[in-house]
Amino acid sequence: MSFANTQCTKVLSNGYVYKLETESFQKMVKSWGATLAGVGDVREGLADEFRHLPIAVSLAVSHPPIAQGMVRTKTVTAYTNSFPAVDAVLEKVQKRTVSYLRSLGWKAFAIPPDTDKYDPSFAARLYPLFPHKTAATCAGLGWIGKNGLLVTPEYGARLSWATVLTDASLTASGKPHTKGQCNNCRCCVDICPAKALTPDEWVRGSCGPKINVGACTERLRENHSVLGAYICGLCVLACPQVR
Ligand code: SF4
Ligand code: SF4
Question: Is the per-residue pLDDT at 150 higher than 90?
């Protein structure tokens, strides 16, 4: 089954019929700065607030080389996934995607990067109703790894994500992931100093990999006392999918 070269049409107010091809749309969004861009049908399981926006555009920007995120002391090694420059690019791409779809008459709603979720606005209270993981897995860009993060074959979990929900009749850009692809790998499970991870593979519709959030949080607290930052990230570094 081919998912590429699919297109949708829109009759504009001037009578012009506009054709939007999924593959061309992806290329355009990547030219704006996205590392990965995909389209998924997410109508199954959408919260009532979003039922009028059944298509998700999943956007990701990759993190800089690993060395830039490493933090080492005599006693602690950690990796940060906080990169303001990456977030800035992601926000710019997301805004441009929303503007573009709206300019053609479709509705578009931005679910911002996780770093923006401190926003106290009404819209921000809707964000937790739609996780970026749903958009990315439905678009076939990646799966939920045993570390509980979105994992892609190209970049592991070293990406920041944003989503645009829309009613544009774009079709799926890839085969949706419905289960994890970690297979026999358990590098993140074994390296986790808090023993917070388990070797269970994610399956869509399940609660996801069982992660002991309390144990992970405790480790972040311990690192904070040494590094002054709530970071660990060893489960990101360990992933063999990382470039
Ligand atoms: S961030 Fe550290 S403590 Fe938390 S799950 Fe990953 S490896 Fe374990
Ligand atoms: S380290 Fe292995 S098990 Fe963990 S997320 Fe990456 S591929 Fe999956």
Answer: yes
Ligand 1 mutation target, pool 219, 224, 226, 237, most atoms within 8 A of CB: 219
- What are the extents of the domains in the chain? 7-237
Does ligand 2 lie within 6 Å of residue 182's CB atom?
A: yes
Q: Among 123, 104, 79, 103, which residue's Cα sits nearest to residue 19?
A: 104
Block residue for tokens 């590429």? 4
3-state secondary structure of 211: coil
pTM (two decimals): 0.88
> CA-to-CA distance for 122 and 114, rounded, in angstroms?
16
Query: What does the chain come to in residues?
Result: 243
- Give the whole-angstrom CA distance, residue 67 versus residue 124: 33
pLDDT band at residue 130 under the 50/70/90 scheme: confident
- For ligand 1, atom 4, the nearest C-alpha belongs to 216
**pLDDT tens digits along 8-38:** 566 666 666 566 789 999 999 999 999 999 9
Q: What is the whole-number distance in angstroms between the Cα of residue 59 and the centre of ligand 1? A: 25
What phi, psi does 40 have (nearest 5°)?
A: -135, 150
